């Protein structure tokens, strides 16, 4: 705080921390949100850093609120700092970054500068907001795609989107999928092929497809482009995915204001690698009163190794060239994830979500395969909505969440995809459950169908 005073000296360690946080933060707009007092015309002119701000807060607010505010200031400050460094280093606290060999740095720098240009280009912004339509013919976007789209996909949703974009831009497109995922998501595979894409299989699931897509890109930087649909990979890939998916959060805000006259109270989204959750959460990160809830796949049980609950069970490490939370064994080797929601089957999670968990801005829960499958059927029957099994994890959490909320709470769940692709899986599960068919070994789990 610079100045020393008897007030400062007499304060408890907690209060002194608040003092120094107030003093050190340059984020006046954030503080104004946290402390309406600072928006008061009389107090707004108080310069920061200033001891008077602290004295004002101390006089006006009970201690408990100040201590609660301490955490909020801390969180907001971290978010502001992170926002600043994001476009330079892709760091979210200790997560993220670019763990690549030097030969790739130039290429990623070029991508970053093109991305930054797009983000500041009003024409790009207008057209991307306009239903996120790809801008055919525009030099900058074409730069990214003008070679060959190489895309890894799990459930195939991102693959279908990429195939559609490449079809529109007349680009060659190759989609890489794990052989298990190709079997489980065969309708999306067909769709990609109809859109003109080549679909290549690799042994395994999404993580193996991602590794292969990165390998292909690294092997031919001049002609190939790694198109990240999920918020993983080297910076700026996760940041790009987040920005382009943020339409979900913006639309959520717009519709909430239209329908409810204000913000929602709670946002819920499933978490695979994170693109749909972050797409919705990012817009509301600074709205502290809005709860952000991510739901991971507990698979058959969160206690064994047949789940994809990275945020619940993961530890920090580097995978697919970024630092994040990962499912790993005691030697640091990746543990294969499991979920009936194929798109949730990834052993990591985006650096940004790892960060939001670490600073306590978002909370995370899990739903099992069974809970998701049951909710799928329930929603079809009750609402005539057939959710993707990934989204069904988020919806499954409502059963636990809603009884804890006050009447009239406004909850938005991101239904991240349609469940047509999962019809066969659900049908087989229901047959198993009703005892009409057996899986042959007398235990129906894990549900690798
Ligand atoms: C319908 C659907 N929802 C959610 C996900 C999970 O991915 P993410 O966490 O990146 O949104 C996927 C991934 O393929 C998906 O297909």
From TrEMBL:
<protein>
    <recommendedName>
        <fullName>tryptophan synthase</fullName>
        <ecNumber>4.2.1.20</ecNumber>
    </recommendedName>
</protein>
<dbReference type="GO" id="GO:0004834">
    <property type="term" value="F:tryptophan synthase activity"/>
</dbReference>
<keyword id="KW-0822">Tryptophan biosynthesis</keyword>
<dbReference type="GO" id="GO:0005737">
    <property type="term" value="C:cytoplasm"/>
</dbReference>
<keyword id="KW-0057">Aromatic amino acid biosynthesis</keyword>
<dbReference type="InterPro" id="IPR001926">
    <property type="entry name" value="TrpB-like_PALP"/>
</dbReference>
<keyword id="KW-0663">Pyridoxal phosphate</keyword>
<keyword id="KW-0456">Lyase</keyword>
<dbReference type="InterPro" id="IPR036052">
    <property type="entry name" value="TrpB-like_PALP_sf"/>
</dbReference>
<feature type="domain" description="Tryptophan synthase beta chain-like PALP">
    <location>
        <begin position="153"/>
        <end position="417"/>
    </location>
</feature>
<comment type="pathway">
    <text>Amino-acid biosynthesis; L-tryptophan biosynthesis; L-tryptophan from chorismate: step 5/5.</text>
</comment>
<dbReference type="InterPro" id="IPR023026">
    <property type="entry name" value="Trp_synth_beta/beta-like"/>
</dbReference>
<dbReference type="Pfam" id="PF00291">
    <property type="entry name" value="PALP"/>
</dbReference>
<keyword id="KW-0028">Amino-acid biosynthesis</keyword>
